[in-house]
Amino acid sequence: MAYLVSHPDEVKVISKRFGMGAADIDRYLQLDGYAAVKKALSMTPDAIISEVKASNLRGRGGAGFPTGMKWSFVPKESAKPKYVLCNGDESEPGTCKDRLIFEHDPHAVIEGVVIAGLSIGSKVGYIYIRGEYRYLSEIMQKAIADAYARGFLGKNIFGSGIDFDVYWHGGAGAYEVGEESALMESLEGKRGVPRIRPPFPAVVGLYGGPTIINNAETLASVPHIMLMGGQKYAEIGTPKNGGTRLFCLSGHVAKPGVYELPLGYNLKKMIEVVGGGIANGRKLKAVVPGGSSVPILTADECDVAMDFDTMMKAGTFLGSGGVIVLDDQTCIVKFALRTTKFYRHESCGWCIPCREGTDWLEKTLVRFHAGGGVKKDIDNMQYLAENMLGRTFCPLGDAAAMPIIGFVKKFRQEFEDHLEGKPCPYEKATELVGA
Amino acid sequence: MNFSEQLEARYSDMLTHYPIKRSVLVPMLLYIQDELGYLTDEAIHEIGQRLDISDLEVRNVISYYSMLRTKPAGKYNVQVCTNICCMVRGGEEIFDHCKKKLGVGHKGVTPDGVFSLEEVECIGACSWAPALQVNYDFHENLTPEKVDEVLESYAKRQEQ
User: In terms of CATH, what superfamily is B76-159?
Assistant: First the structure.
């Protein structure tokens, strides 16, 4: 079961309604449901965008692009229809937060989609949910149907004279589809191969029309911003990094779970105080702070504020909110291998640096972890990864390369310890840590 | 060919959601697979015909998505996550345990057709690791003992 946890340091904005049955529309209405859409209907599109800009909300999917700015890129006039697309393809290893939003507060996502649509002059929104999340898709389909039945969606929503349709769309297993242009390709019924940018989706997107694509958590934050005011939301976080976000603590912490904390919360504190420290009396070795695609931090590097800008300065990224905590019995080489295997599997195959690069890296690491590594392999992996960076058709190549660069740079000794046929020092050290 | 009444109703409804009918392809393929067990040659041809795309193009799309299959699986498809968060909490051991218990390997199907097994990438249960899915059901915070209980509960369902 995806049970809920809590901690006194939490500031509950998006998770305010979790565990309260808010998937039920009547319950949702009791809890300020749809008040935000009603407010947005009384505002001009520009006023809505200003409010979101004032909030300093930045993309919660991983890239952290300022949301208000993204919406402002949509041209006022368009020959083709405009669209809102909710990215619910949550597949970044370490990330399990949109799942909770879909389960406990699906209407908040619907509201976010509608408000986004009102701000850009769109009449249609799609909520794309990954294929594995079937029970969540069913909850969302029911929420959408209930909203239509009440006149909150469809023709003349809330008697405003404005039409707005929201549709669920399902995936069928593909990490790359979470990349926004590949998401559009998938929704159009094709293989999830990304598109060349420019043009960007805000100008040429779904079916060729202007489209804004946002992560589910980003969209679910919007109704709260409308009701509390953008400035108030911004003040919860740090300058230019407004609000709170859902952090998914996983790995070797004593109290794994999804916690909502303000942007800027200290990572070391998150692990020790919120996460309860390392389980089983072991010590912290490293953290992958924002999902598998971001560079790893050593235990000494964890005294850092978790917001987009600080994390970038620290040489990594805030990313998707997946905080993967590793103890001193973790083999970094094995961790690197499994990470690389994931990217090789998920590579769409379109471009050579990613398709061939991930394959070479995986093959090298398989041989390496089995004791067949030679010294120059270590530098070769680094060289290969550095040459994938920035040369692939989409950021998946960067996502595969950056972790390797981090592992080799910061844990070179572990790679050297696997040389000359030496057995992995951590073999048989993994104990089953299931609850 | 016709699909079930329920699936035909869903198909007709979904067509109204998009300006281009090809958009129903990926979600429909999964619903068709749920109904037939796997994507048969007949179903591939049928959906292709309806959406004005060739069988080859339908297969082209199928080959991209990891949940879609053109061969039967077990009635209960056990999908064990071995990605990093599950791995560091014993996900590989869970997968090995399932292999022993079911007597099959990755993508294997038990001789009675009740279970199949595969290792999968991250299913979004990282904070409740290690985890697996049986068809669409999530089972989390696993131990080998819990896995045995899970498998037995499905085996019992099959007997009923």
Answer: Glutaredoxin (3.40.30.10)
| Closest-CA residue of chain B to A287 | B85
Is CATH 3.40.50.11540 the right assignment for the domain spanning A14-236?
Answer: yes
Tokens (6 digits) for B139: 């089972």
Q: For A163-188, how does the pLDDT look when each residue is reduced to its tens digit (9 = 90+)?
A: 999 999 999 999 999 999 999 999 99
Q: Does the N-terminal peptide bond of residue A199 adopt cis geometry, omega within 30 degrees of 0? A: yes
B94 pLDDT band, cuts 50/70/90, is very high
A91 contacts in chain B (CB < 8 Å): 121-122, 124
| Residue ranges per structural domain of chain B | 5-62, 76-159
Domain A244-324 belongs in CATH node 1.10.3470.10: no
A192 and B64: CB-CB below 8 Å?
yes
> Does A431 have pLDDT greater than 50?
no
First-last CA distance in chain B:
31
> Does A340 reach chain B within 8 Å, measured CB to CB?
no
Is A169's CB within 8 Å of B65's CB? no
pTM confidence score: 0.97
Report chain B residues whose CB lies below 8 A from the CB of A133: 124
Q: What is the mean pLDDT of residues B120-130?
A: 98
Side-chain half-sphere exposure of B73, counting CA atoms within 13 A? 24
ipTM over 0.95: yes
Q: Looking at the domain A332-417, which fold is it?
A: de novo design (two linked rop proteins) (1.20.1440)
Residue B97 in tokens: 């345990």
Nearest-angstrom CA–CA distance, B33 and B40: 8
- Rounded CA-CA distance A51/A279 in Å is 43
A94–B141 CB contact, under 8 Å? no
Nearest beta carbon to residue A342 from set B65, B83, B137: B83
What is the average pLDDT score of chain A? 96
Measured between CA atoms, how close is A215 to chain B, in angstroms?
15
Contact across the interface for B126 and A93, Cβ inside 8 Å: yes
Residue B159 banded pLDDT, cuts 50, 70, 90: confident
